Amino acid sequence: MAAQRASHKAVRIGVIALVTLAIGATLGFLPLSSYSFSPGDAIAVRGEIAVPGEMNLSSQGSILMTDVILMQLTPITWLMDQFDSSVSIYPAADVFGGSSPSKLVQLQLGQMADSKTAAVLAAYNFAHRPYTLTPGATIATVTSKADSRLKPGDLIVAIDGATVKTVAGAVAAVRDAASKVRLTILREGASVGKPVKVEITATKYYLDGRMVLGVGLQQGYSVTLGVPVRISTGEIGGPSAGLAFTLGVLQAMGVITVAHSARFAATGTIDYAGNVGDVGGVRQKAIAVGRHGATLFLVPPQEVGAARSAKEQNLKIVGVSSLRGAIDYLVAHSLISLKLPR
Length: 342
Hints:
By secondary structure, the chain is of the alpha+beta class. It contains 9 helices and 20 strands.
């Protein structure tokens, strides 16, 4: 009898232990309101950029672009990340601000589209190549109630047949339009410099007592080139590859030639004039390019400290504030040669 009671007690203890383990396992995978930044990939931009008639670049060295991996944490992954010095952890508010994850994705995809256009124009300006700009209102974000055909990066250039060149003009035209609004849009195709014209009739809806289309707008431009440039980025978002893209476009155009043994990386936003701007996650990016064999990392000047904090022993960190500054440094250290038309 005593043995039977002991057996029942053992069964109860075993069941309690299993239930406790199950609860612990479940809690361990519940999402936290914290996110991690960890080193991503580093790839040669020459494989992502195509210019019709470009020379064979296989004998040249590599210009690397890089990214970071953003991941929502669970108790288990949070604990694991405490032992990984390459990871930084931030509260959701620091990552998204007042936005949401879905809106951030939309915004970053739009930023990537703008970054590719800016990179091509910065390269064309540097090389003194001609192009045509069409101003308009760029769609930055799209709400769930907006017409599903509207995409981040679309440039609105006319509303109900009337030309639109600014955000203010677009807002006024939408406000004064009927419930159905005919939008003329220039949408980037597979290549920068060859926009596709799209006509969409969208329906407004009520929000806070007014009729809206459900899109966020910012000033933008569409560019038309004699020779379109293709930059493949997949689902990668954000503007931080601007400087790397610009150098890659110049390499594809034959304006710069990368020394065969050179392997360097670059990060930073770029504008049409070639100014380099601040980006995030630079410590993780330095780790990523160091792991992929880069010996030099060009970063915005204000990010030099963050990049050096990665302590990649064989990686030199150099701050550059402009495309011209980056090219001057690369030429001076025999990493590239420069050929400009006279």
